[in-house]
Design goal:
251 residues; 3-stranded antiparallel beta sheet; single chain; two-stranded antiparallel sheet
Length: 251
């Protein structure tokens, strides 16, 4: 309850438009070991050794989907759920973050509860809904579910709306014990140029004298409003691969 009380309130989340999944750069391979974030979570949460093919495509293992109280052995039946969905994060504050902070949220391996291996069917039923609008089919998970929701929002300093707060408060008031670990605060950096109601913009290349962030891929750079970059003009050109060798990237 104490973490919930610290969450700021915003009863107009739908006003924060401009959401795009690409802005969160999921799933990345942050440590360069060939396994992206999805694969890392599948390995971490499997109750048995996993099998894989290719660079790191997980095939089999043993995963318990807490949302529906069911075990799965085929990785194809599993989704990795952003406990607080990406769109929910966007309207709860991520619209104002830098691209680096959004990518950190989208691939958060620093708090085990942020990303959860669950059945694909339950994850898609949940979609981008908060606890006032969706709860898992497994009612025995309700207490841990809403407590984890609060923990992730607190970790990333995200807002709640009043209906969401009331629902979480009501459920938590009936919980005798909770097993959710209190997270560490994440590093959240605000983009001073963020425009509410629109995707972030910036960059533009053409030797503007400002070196833009290295987003890793042109897809993410463009989603954040950056580029194009020209060889010999923009230092950012060297950050990206010029696949068609036309002297321009992120165009």
């Amino acid at each position: 309850m104490s973490l919930l009380a610290e969450l700021p309130e915003d009863d107009s989340p739908s006003s924060h438009t401009g959401y795009n999944r690409d802005l969160f750069n999921v799933w990345s391979d942050a440590n360069g070991d060939g396994c992206d974030t999805r694969a890392e979570v599948l390995k971490l949460e499997s109750a048995s050794a996993v099998s894989a093919h290719g660079s790191c495509t997980i095939d089999t293992g043993s995963w318990y989907s807490a949302y529906d109280g069911t075990w799965f052995t085929n990785a194809g039946d599993i989704d990795i759920d952003h406990f607080v969905p990406l769109k929910e994060a966007w309207v709860s504050g991520a619209w104002a973050w830098t691209g680096t902070t959004r990518a950190a949220f989208g691939n958060d391996l620093g708090y085990a509860a942020s990303l959860l291996a669950v059945s694909a069917s339950s994850n898609r039923s949940k979609s981008d809904q908060d606890p006032a609008r969706w709860l898992p089919p497994n009612s025995e998970f309700y207490c841990d579910y809403v407590a984890t929701w609060v923990g992730v929002k607190w970790r990333w300093n995200l807002t709640v709306d009043s209906l969401e707060r009331d629902t979480v408060t009501r459920i938590l008031s009936s919980c005798s014990t909770l097993t959710v670990a209190v997270p560490e605060r994440a590093t959240v950096t605000i983009n001073p140029n963020a425009v509410d109601g629109a995707p972030p913009v910036g960059g533009g290349g053409s030797g503007d004298g400002v070196v833009d962030p290295d987003f890793g891929t042109c897809t993410i750079a463009k989603a954040n409003g950056y580029g194009p970059y020209i060889r010999g003009v923009d230092p950012e050109y060297e950050f990206y691969r010029d696949a068609d060798k036309d002297g321009s990237v992120c165009e």
